[in-house]
Structure formats: structure tokens, C-alpha cells
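So, can you check?
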Amino acid sequence: MELRAERLTKDFGRRRAVDGLTFSFEGPGLIGFLGPNGAGKSTTLKLFSHLLRPTFGRALVNGWDVADDPVTALSGLSALVEAPHPYAHQTIREFLTFIGELRMIESTALSERIRWLSERLALEGLDRRCGSLSRGHRQRVVLAAVLIPETPIVLLDEPTGSLDPVEAKLVRSLLLDLKRDRLIFMSSHLLSEVASTCDRIAFLNHGKLIMVDSVDAVRSRFSLRDGADGLEDAYLHLIQEGIS
């Protein structure tokens, strides 16, 4: 499993949102994608999930160019970008079944998958309509939908952004299990979350990648203590000083 960018660039008129990104992540693990608001994180995820086309360069999933062959590339990828809403008129079970059928998952396997995810993400009342759910509950339903197909690569854009501490803990626990055999690329503003779940970190600023390294190496480079506070120091230093 591999997620690779080759001089990946995206312009919106005169504004360059993503500026020549080049990176490669292979094998299982959880990559934290960090940067201030407007740095280009969501745009990057949209380029990899074919919601946007690059102005220049390539986004590749398992060696397949997303822009040139999206069907093949995206068959190995699932993505949660900017927290879409489930269909309000469907029940949780209906929505998850609909997603599973779109991904052509066999019915018995799909039922088991829905059962397992509903337990892990505490999706109480599978026959409740999605339109009646709280914001956090809806987000957990959408995350479950993303994880219905057991794709080797998962893109997540702020997956715990609307969750309370109990809900966020459920998601973090699930991600820690999933990263053992999947490649997860996750944007987050929660440095405590990154410190506790991620194996590597990619720092983005003004659309440019300014550092990629393991969590431990980042702490070592800046002589930081363990935990979120240390990563916050590194984050602020990189953003303010523009170290590459």
C-alpha cells in the first residue's frame, strides 16, 4: 500500500493552495497531516480522492494516478473529507447498507461489518433516522461508512473535529487498531490526538511540505518532551520560522 505525491500542485485562480508536494508513504501506519488553517490540507486530501484535479503533478494511490485512472486508484482507498452528512431520510442501517452495496460488499459480510463498526463506534439504534442524530453521532455514522469497505488506504480530514471527548476516544481506539494493517493519512488540529496515535507527521504551511518525520524524530530534533506539548512547540517553531 502506498500514497505518493509527485510535485502535486493546485491553483485556484492566482492563489496556489498546494505547492509542489512530493512525498511517499508506504505500508501500514498512521500519518498525521498538520498545518494551520488554509495550509492546503483539505485540498491535498481532495486531490487524492478525486474531488479536485491537480493543476500540475500527480497524486498516486498504490501506483495508480488518481486523475488518469480514478476507478482503479480509488478502489483501494476510502476517504472522509470535510465531514459530509448522511442522507437524513435513511436510517443508520439503511445508510451503511447503501454504502456497502455501492462498494459491492457481499450481504453477509456487510451485515457483519455494520455490526462490528456499530459496536466500535457506539452507533446506538441502527434504525434511527440520520436526520434525527446529534452532530457527533452523524459524524461517527459517516466515519463508519468510510470504513465499511476494508480498503488498504484511508484518508481522514479532522475525523474527531465534532466529537465530544468520549466519542473522540472511541475513534482514537479504533484508529490504533486499524493502523496495524492499513495506511491512514489523517489531518488534525488536535496535537494530543497526533501524539497518541500517529507514527509519522507531515507538516504543511502555505501549501508547501516543510517537514516529514517520525513523531519520535521530531521530538528528538527539537529536544522536546513527550506528549502534545512537545509537538505543539515543534509545530509553532516550524510554522513561525519556516524550517525545512
Notes: The radius of gyration is 18 Å. The longest helix spans residues 107-120. The first strand starts at residue 2 and ends at 12.
